[in-house]
Amino acid sequence: MKYIAITQRVQVLSEIGERRDALSQEWTALAAQCGFLPILLPNTLSMVQALFDHLPIDGILFSGGNDLLTHGGDAPERDAVEHFLIEYAIQNKITLLGICRGMEIILEHFGTELVPIDGHIRVHHPLTTGEIVNSFHSFGAHSCKAPLKATHMSEDGVVEGIIHHDYPWIHGIMWHPERYHPFRQKDILWIKEMFHL
Question: Backbone phi, then psi, for 79, in 5-degree steps?
Answer without folding.
Answer: -55, -45
